[in-house]
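Homework help board

Subject: predicted structure for assignment chain

Our instructor gave us this sequence and asked us to write out the predicted structure in C-alpha cell form, then describe one feature. I got the C-alpha cells but I'm not sure how to describe them. Can anyone check?
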Amino acid sequence: MKKKHQQLLAGLLSLLMLFSLVACGHGSSGGSASSGTGAAHTSGKSEDDPIVFAASRYACPGKDDAFYCSSALCVWESLLVNGPDGTTVGQLAESFEGSDDAKTWTFHLRKGVTFHDGTPFNADAVLFNIERMKKNLSSDYTSLRYDRSFPGLETIDKPDDYTLIFHFAEPVPDLPISMRGYGSPMFSPSCIAEDGSFSGPAIGTGPFRLKDIQPDQSVTVERFDGYWGEPAATKYIELRTITDPSTRLSALKAEEVMGVVDLGAIEPSMAVELAKNDQFALSTYKSTMTHLIAVNRQKFPFNDQRMTEAISLLIDRQLIVDQIFYGFGTPTTNLINHTSPYYIDTPIEHNVDQAKALAKEVLGDERVPVKLVLRQKDLNRYPQEEVAVYLKDVLKDIGLDIEIQILETELYGETIPAGDWDMTVNKRQLPGTTIEIIRSFLGSKGDSNANYYHLGYSDPETDALIEKATYEMDPAKRQELFTQLQTTLYDSMLVIPYLHDESLVAYNKKIEGFGISYRGTTLPTTHWA
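My C-alpha cell output:
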C-alpha cells in the first residue's frame, strides 16, 4: 500500500506545475477562470435550446424534502442571502435593521414580487412560511428549523403588507446570518400541505420554475417571465444526475453536458486534467466546508488525547492540500471555517518526532487495529478515500494499523452514533451562525458532542462562555469571546480539522455567464456563447 501511495503522490507532484497554469482563476475572489487562452468557442445555439449540466446528486428530492429542490436551481428564494465578503444582503427582504439591543428586527419586504402561480409575495406569505418552519422539516441539504433561524422569537408585528417586526426574548446579533439562504426559504402557500410537506411541485419566486421532473434522473427548469429581477439569460436549464465522478467527466468531455454544478461535482484531479484543454474553463470560490478527521474518543487508544494530538502532528496538511486536493483548499487546524466573520488562525504544526513520542507514551510497543469508516456518497464528490489511504500509510509509523471500510449512507449514519468505529474522514459545513457549530461540538448537550460523535466534552465554564458569546452585543467583546471558544476547540482536539474546502465547477466554453460566486453557481446568467 505504501508503494501505491508513493506512486500516487509522485504522479500528483508532476501535476502541480500544471496547476500553476490555472492559478490565475483560483482563489477567494470567485468568478470564471479560463483554463486556456485560445479563441472563443461559439455554440450556434439559441436561448431556447436547453443547457444541460451534471450534478453529483439529485437536485429535486421532492415533496418530503423540506426544500423540495436544491437552491442551485433558483426556483425558490429567501428573505436574506449571502453577500460579498461574508456580509448578509436582502433578497425578498429589500432591507432590514436591528435595534441597538438586537432584540427587535424590522424587515421591509420587496414589493411587486409574485410566486410562480401568481400568488402575491407579502407579509402574510412570510408569516405562513415561518409557521411552517416550526414543524422542523428534514432535508438532504440541511434541516429547516425554526429555532435555528429565529432563536427565541416571541412575537411578530405586521404594520402593513410589506413590513414585519420581529421581537426576541434575548439579543440575536447574528440573526441575519442564521436567516440566509436555507434559513428563510419562501414558498407559495398553495403548494404546502397541512403537515408542512409539499402538496405538489415547489412554487417559489425565483428566476426559474420547475418544468419537468424525472425522479432521481434529471430536473428541468424554465425561465419565469414574471420574475421581479433580471430575467434568466436562457429559457431552459436541465440538471442531470450523474453520481459517478468519472462518468461526469466523460459526459463533459463528450458535450453531453455543458458543465457540472453542486459541491464536489468535479474532483480536483479532474479539474487539473480539464485545464489542459482549451475547450473548458474552471471557476472557484471559497467554501463553507471544513474537512476533518474524527476518532472514537470512547475507545482505546483515542480516549487518550495524546493520541489525537499525535495524529494531528503527524499528518502533513500542506501535502494533503497540494497532492490530494491539487491546491484547491487551505490547510487548517480550526473547525470554524475561514468564511466565518469570527474566524481566527490557529497553529498548524507538523512534527513527526513529537508525534511518535506522544504515541509511544500511549501505546508503548503495542500495535492497535483501527477501523476507519467512510460514507459512500461522499466518495462521489470528495477525495476522502485518497485521504484515508494516506492516513493508512503514515499512521502505521505510530502503531495504528488501519482497515478502511466504505459504508452505505444509511449504515454510516447508524454506525457513527452507535460507536462501532475507530476513525472516520468526514466534513462539516458551517450552518447558520458560527455559534451553532461551536455549541454543537463544545456544548455539554451539543449534537455532535453528545449525540453523534460522543466526544465526551463537558465543561461548565465553556457552556457559560457559549451563552455569553450568543448574546454579547459589543463587537470587540464578541470577537474576544469567539476567539476564546475557537482556542478551546483547538486545545481540546475533539476532532482533527485538516482543510478548508474550495468550491469548484467546470464548464464548456460554448456557454458563458456560468461560474461560482458567494451566491453559489450562476445559472440565471448562463447562456450559449
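Reply (TA_rk): Your C-alpha cells look well-formed. For the description, you could write something like this. The chain is about 30% helix and 25% strand. That's the kind of observation they're looking for.
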